[in-house]
Write the structure tokens for this entry.
Amino acid sequence: MKEKKKSALSELMEFAGGYKILTALSLLLSALSALLALTPFVFLYRMIREVLAVAPDFTQASGLIRNGWMAVGASLLSTLIYFIALMCSHIAAFRTAGNIRVILLEKIALLPAGVIENIGTGKTRRIVTESSAATETYLAHRLPDLAASIATPLGILVLLFIFDWRFGLASLLPMVFSFMAMWSMAGPNMREDMRNYQDALSNMSNEATEYVRGIPVVKTFGQTVHSFRRFKASIDNYYKFCISYTKNARRPMMRFTVFLNSAFAFLTALTLILTAGRSVPAGLLQSVLFYVIFTPQIATVLNRILFASEDNMMIADSLSRVHAILDLEPLPVSDNPKVPEGASLEFDHVTFRYPGAARDAVSDLSFTAEPGTVTALVGPSGGGKTTVAALVSRFFDATSGAVRIGGADTRDIKPETLSDKIAYVFQDSRLLKRSILENVRLGRPEASREAVLDALHRAQCDDILAKLPNGADTVIGAKGTYLSGGERQRIAIARMILRDAPIVVLDEATAFADPENEALVQRSFEELAKGKTVFIIAHRLTTVRNADNILVLKDGKLEESGGHDELIQKHGLYETMWNEYQNAIQWKVGVNA
């Protein structure tokens, strides 16, 4: 039997936990407030009736003041109850949105980094921040308004027919026609439109994030937005969808607006029919005056219903995006975990293909790296070097074959154990907006200040600390304190030195360093690598010349392996790369005298 799909509200209540009681209370109070907001019209009807009954001697209208104060009192009571309802809904909304963010971040922390990379950092950020914020707005404002929108029509229907059913029916007809026009816009088709809209917006956000990251390249080469075709395509796609949707909704929206504001025309037509040129009786005039004043409330209610239907679809779409992350499965954890014995690293006929890719990123790769040795990965761009590093850290699981650390398959090692075994230094290491001391201490939170300072010294960071106003206590990014790429890399290496993991993976770690910083980074590598199993990915071949074993990858396959001199003597791909690299570093710009 197919499981019944939960409503958006039911899912939100699961995230709300104990605060769902406040949400229920806010709905009840909002509905009560909406009904109380209609009672002033009852007192208004009495006032109109009394005025017409005593005309022209209005001094006999003794109940006007009493009915007027009753109307004011009902309005104030309605406002007070609505204020309490919003207090309850806001508390519940803030807690629910907070719970969603916490649950999402906890889930993301369990997911392998490769999965988040495939989703895209822009999309992930938007789901965590904007989708959860949408639930907050919905619970805090839209849901109480929806409860009022349901209660108000019921109260209006009663008032429409309790005084004069003929004028009540005349007021109801434009409401029916407006609803029909609204349904053609906000009916079942709108759910698909809303999903497409959010997809287009999400793709544009993701591509915008990537574009901003690439601005230095764009500015350097004098390119325009057109150089980022995917970003421009996402903008064009968003533009086309919005224009198309707006054109499709134009006529239904016109009909909705016309009928919504035509109640007065229906009332006027009915009055002319009933009087047929005769004088207007007092009772009929009383009804005309009351319904002319009362029927604008119908327009307010229908507008609320229109936006409520749109909000329901938006929140359903937001929750579907939240579940797109929550439903992702982390890499499986073995029921019988193994503890690595030592820090050797072995690839045993490893093959890996990214989801949806046409070919393998790594194909039948085998090698062994022993503790105290340096293994380097080199090769043409796109050869699979970074993928190999990702498999070492178990950002992904091999499609076939096995990656072993200390003789244990990485799939059989607990994630926290694997994390303790590997220190990863990325191409562009990120530092948090905290002090340098706190950034380094992330490697080992319980480390003493002395241990952190020692790690900074071993990572060749003394010159960095000397020029900063507060040394290691200087906050990165505060008051204009920023570091160069090479300096950030040394701070990141200090973090890894403090962590003291037995396996070190360096992914293009000197890519953003100038020559001076590169020399210091290289010295910090030597400190980091002492007694460790070191795995280096590099394009600058001089950085791996002294490696114990150099693996040359091309199209995901191992072309050659061995030491530098051995590979040069093979006259293969490595020798070609080495010669090209030597020519590149010796190239100079000629200047004519």
Notes: The chain has a mean pLDDT of 79. The radius of gyration is 35 Å. The first helix runs from residue 8 to 16.
